[in-house]
Amino acid sequence: MLNKRAKAHLLLFMFMFLLILNFSLSQGDELKLLLSFKSSINDPSSFLSNWNSSTPLCLWHGISCNNFSRVKVIELIEKNISGIISSSIFHLPEIESINLSTNRFSGEIPSDLVFSVFLRYLNLSNNHLTGGVPNCSISLEILDIGNNLFSGNIPPQIGVCSNLKELHLEGNNLVGRIPSSISNISSLQILTLACNELIGQIPHALSKMKSLKWIYFGHNNLSGAIPRELFNLVSLNHLDLVDNNLSGQIPSSLGNLTNLQYLFLYENKLTGLLPRSIFGLKKLVELDLSYNHLSGEIPELIIELKSLEILHLSSNNLTGEIPSLICKISSIEVLNLADNNLSGTISPCLGNFSNRLSILDLQSNSFHGTILETFREDCGLRNINFNGNKLEGSLPRSLANCKNLEMMDVGDNKINGTFPYWLYTLPELQVLVLRSNKLHGVLQSSKIIHPFPKLRILDLSNNDFTGPLPKGIIKNLKAMMNLSEQQSSLQYMQGRYYYYHVNLTVKGFYSEFPEISKTLTSIDLSNNNFHGEIPSVIGKLRSLRGLNLSHNSLGSQIPTSMGNLTSLEWLDLSSNKLTGQIPNELTDMTFLAFLNVSHNRLTGPIPQGKQFSTLENGSYEGNLALCGFPLSKACNNDGRKQSSPSFLKEADDSESKISFGWKIVLMGYGCGLIFGAVIGYVTFRNGEPKWFVTLFRVKYH
Amino acid sequence: MDHISWMVPNNKRNGLHKDQINKASRQEDWVEKDRAAAAKTSPPPMAAPIWIWAFSVSLTVVPFVLGNSEGDALYTLRRSLTDPDNVLQSWDPTLVNPCTWFHITCNQDNRVTRVDLGNSNLSGHLVSELGKLEHLQYLELYKNNIEGTIPTELGNLKSLISLDLYNNNISGTIPPSLGKLKSLVFLRLNDNWLTGPIPRELAGISSLKVVDVSNNDLCGTIPTSGPFEHIPLNNFERNPRLEGPELLGLASYDTNCS
C-alpha cells in the first residue's frame, strides 16, 4: 500500500503525463481542425490569408489563444465569408467563444454536434444558415443564431442548455409552439424568439424562469391570453409581445413587474380596460399598447408613471377625456393617442407644461373647442397632429414659439381665421397641412425675407382662401428647389420611437403615407377661391413632385416655365379658367404619371411625345378646342406650330403605302427613259439599223 | 426565404433597445414587419361557419400578401438595375406596398398601374418578375441604357396598355408571348438592338394602335394583318435585314431569320 507521499507523487506524475499528452495533441490537431474549417469556406477579402503552417496559430487573424496557447476564441465578424461551417471548429478542445456573425455562411449545423465542454459563447447570427436549431451543451452561456433561415420547431431538448444566460432565436423561420421545457433554463436572462412563425400560447412554465429580464416574442402568431403567471417574473425589465394574435385582457398582475421599464404589447387583439396596476410601474419608461381593442378611459392615475417618456395608446377604443393631470408627467416626450374615441377639449397645459414634449399626436378623435392658446417660449414640439377632430377657433400665435416644429397637421377640423402667417419664420417646418378647414382671406406676401425655408409639403386645400396665388411665398420655397436625391440613403421623418405620417391627394387619390420621405415634396392649393395667374416663378420649384391647383378660378395661361418642373409626377390644374395652349415644354416632365387639365378653356394642339404619349382623354375633357392625340379631334395644319407625334412619321399613313409603290414605278420610268434616249441617239446618229431609220424617215446630219 | 420581404436590419422603430442588451457583438438593429399592414388585416368574427370564416380570412390576408409581392417584384428590378442618379432610392421593400414609392402609381386597391422611369440614366437589365404586376397598364422605361433581353414573362401583363422600351440597348428577340397582351395599345421598341423576326402573334392583338420597331436589327417580313394594316411602314425602317411587308398566300417566308 502506498503511503501518502507516494500517492501524491503518483498523482503529480499522472497529472504531468496528461498535461504533456494533452500538449502533444495540441497545435498539430488544432492546425488541422482550423485548416479544415478554412477549406470549406470562401474568403473573398482574404482575411484568413495568414492561416497557414508557417504562421504561429495564435497569431492567425481572428484567433485568440489562452494561457496554454490553445485556441480560445474565434472571431470572424462581418468578413463577407461564405460557405459551410465545418464542424471541425467545434472540436477544438479548449474553444470558449465562437463568433461568426454577419457573414454569408450557409448550410446546416449538424444535429449530432457535440460542443467542447469549454464552449461558453456561440454567435452565428446574421448568416444564411438553414436546418434545425442546433443542440445545446451544458456549458453554453450565450447562444445566438438570430437572423438566419433556421426552420422547424424549437426542439424540447433546448432545456438541456441549463446554464444559458441568453438565447437568441429571433429572425428565423421557426414554427410550432414554444416548448415548456424551455423553463428548465432557469438561469436565462434574455430570451428572444421574435420574427418567427411560432404559434400557440405563451407557456405558463415561463414563470419559473426567475432570472428573466428580457422577453421578446414579437412578430409571431402566438395566440390566447397573456398568462397571468408571466407577471411573476419580477426581474423583468423589458417585455415585448408585439404583432401577435394575443387576446383577452391584460392581467392585472402586471403590477408585480416593479422593474419593468419597457412594455410593448401593440398590434394584438387585447381587450378590456387599461389595468390600473399598470400605473403603479414607477420605472416604466416606454409604454406602447397601440393597435389593440382596449376600451374605457385613461385614468388620472396615469400621472403615477413619473418616469414615462414614451406613451402610445393609439388605435384602440379609448373614450373619455385626456386626464387634466397628464401635464404632471414632465418626462414625457412622445404622446400618441391617435385614432381613439377621446373627447373633450385639448387642455391648454399640453402646450406649456414641458419643453421635453416633442411629439403630440391626437389625430382622429373627437376633441372640440379651440386649440390651446399658450405654447411656451422654449416649446420643444417637433410634430403637432390634430388632424380629424372637431377643433374650431383660430390658430394661436404662440405656435411661433415652437422653433423646432417640423410638422403641423390640423387638417379636417373647423378651424377659422386667416392664414397663420406667423408660421413663416419657423426654421424647421417641413410639412404644413391646413386642409379641409374654414380658413379664409388672402395669402399675403411675406415681409419675412425667407419664409418657410424648409417647407416641402404644403396642403391648404378645401378652404376658402381667396386672392392671387402667393407669388412671394412660392419664389422663396428653397426646400422645393434644390433637394438632391444624391443624399446617401433614404431617410424618413421620425422622432424618438415615432414615424411621422400624413395623408395627401396624390395622382387623383387621397393616399396614406405611413412614412414621409425627406425628399417628398407636394403643393396642394385645390378647392379654394384663388384667382389670377399661375405665376411663372412656379418653374423654380425643380424638386416639386406634385402640384394640385384644381378647383379654383385661375385664369391665365399655363406658364411655359412649368417645363422646368422635371421632378413632377402629378399635375392637376383641372376646373379652373386657364386659357391658351398647353406648353410643349411640359414634355420635359419625364416622370409625369398623372395630368389633369380638364374643365378649363384650353385650346390648340396637345403636346406629343414622351410621357404625353401615355396620357388618356380624361386628362383633357371639358376644354374649348384642344386637338391631337389622345383626343379623336385631329389638329388642322393651319400654320400653327405643331410638334409631330412620335409615332406618326408621316402626315397620312395611307400615303406611305402608295409612295412605296410610286418609287418603284418612277424608277422604272426613269430607267426606261434614259435607256430609250441613248438607243435613239446612237441609232439615228449612225443611221443603223436602216429599217429603223427609214421607218421614221429622219435624216440626221 | 428571402429576408427582404419581412425583415431587414434597420433603425426603424422597434421594441428592442440595443443599449439594454449586454452582448459581445451585435452589428445591426433589426426591424418589425410593417405595422399598418398588420393592422389592416383583421379577420372577421368567428360567428359564421368555420369554412366561411376561413375563406374570408384568406381573402383578407391575400391582398396583404399580394401587395407585398408587387413590391418584391419591383425591388428585384431595382437590384438588377444600376442607378447612378438614385431615382430608385425611395423603393423601400420594407414598406407595406410600393404605392408611396416615387415613380410608381397605384390604383385604389394598392395595385401597381404605372412604372414611369423614362430618361432616368438607368442601366442593367430587366427581370422576369416584372410579369407579376397583373394590374400594370403603363411600363415606361424609354431612353435609358438598359441592356439584356425582353423577358418573356412580360407577356403575363394582361392589363398592359403601353410598353415603351424605346431608346435602350436591349438585344435578343421580341418574345412571341407579347401576343398575349390583349389590352396593349402602344408597343414602342424602336432604337434598340433587337434581332429576329417580328412575331406574328402580335397581329392577334386587336387593340394595338401603335407599333414602332424602327432602328433595330430585325429580320423577316412585316406583318400586314389585323392591326398591322394601319401601321405606317416608317415604323419599321432602319432594320437592314427586314424584308418588307409579308406576301400572304405564298408558301414560306421568314427563312434565314430566327
From TrEMBL, chain A:
Pfam families: LRR_1 (PF00560), LRR_14 (PF23598), LRR_8 (PF13855), LRRNT_2 (PF08263). The keyword Membrane applies. It comes from the Eukaryota. Residues 29-66 form the Leucine-rich repeat-containing N-terminal plant-type domain. It is a single-pass type I membrane protein. Keywords: Cell membrane, Glycoprotein, Leucine-rich repeat, Membrane, Receptor, Repeat, Signal, Transmembrane, Transmembrane helix. It is found in: Cell membrane. Belongs to the RLP family. This is Probably inactive leucine-rich repeat receptor-like protein kinase At2g25790.
TrEMBL record, chain B:
It comes from the Eukaryota. InterPro entries: LRR_dom_sf, LRR_N_plant-typ, LRR_R13L4/SHOC2-like. Pfam families: LRR_14 (PF23598), LRRNT_2 (PF08263). Residues 1-40 are annotated as: Disordered. Residues 68-107 form the Leucine-rich repeat-containing N-terminal plant-type domain. Residues 16-37 have a biased composition (Basic and acidic residues). The chain crosses the membrane at residues 50-69. Keywords: Leucine-rich repeat, Membrane, Repeat, Signal, Transmembrane, Transmembrane helix. This is Leucine-rich repeat family protein isoform 1. It comes from Theobroma cacao (Cacao). The lineage of its organism: Eukaryota, Viridiplantae, Streptophyta, Embryophyta, Tracheophyta.
